[in-house]
Write a structure and sequence with these properties.
Helices cover 0% and strands 32% of the residues. It is globular. The protein has a single domain, classed as Deoxyuridine 5'-Triphosphate Nucleotidohydrolase, Chain A.
Length: 145
């Protein structure tokens, strides 16, 4: 499947798969805005996701080696969005005092992954009762640890 993209910055890196069979294309930071609450990385890339598809932004597994926490955990890029892909991380200010122990992402680092998948259009139907199930209303941890 071909998806159009645009480089918004001369330093933008074309998203690509690191290994055959990978689900997510790596996104590379081209800009960094650091404020008291968030660190926002721009990728210098915008995409034209086809109707019926969604782009999902995930953290890379390397995030476990840094102080970063993706603020919305999974980003959603709808097919109508044409702006720059950005990833916003919570700013754990106290951890920045020891960059040797708690490294940070920087411009030029791979900071996230983009997965583009189809989704069904759902039509919700209001009813008086839902069918029964083995789980029923069991929530948070009800199926085990």
């Amino acid at each position: 499947m071909k998806v159009k993209f645009k480089k918004l910055s001369p330093s933008a890196v074309t998203p690509c798969y690191s290994k055959p069979g990978d689900a997510g294309m790596d996104l590379t930071a081209t800009s960094k805005v650091d404020d008291k609450l968030f660190i926002e990385f721009g990728t210098g890339i915008s995409v034209e996701i086809p109707e019926g598809y969604v782009g999902l932004l995930f953290a890379r597994s390397s995030i476990s080696k840094t102080v970063h926490i993706l603020a919305n955990h999974v980003g959603v890029i709808d097919s109508g969005y044409r702006g720059e892909i950005k990833l916003r991380f919570k700013n754990p200010v106290l951890s920045f005092k020891n960059p040797e122990i708690f490294p940070q992402y920087n411009v030029g680092d791979k900071i996230g992954q983009l997965v583009i998948i189809p989704y069904p259009q759902i039509e919700l139907v209001e009813v008086e009762e839902l069918s029964t199930s083995e789980r029923m209303e069991g929530g948070f941890g009800s199926t085990g640890v």
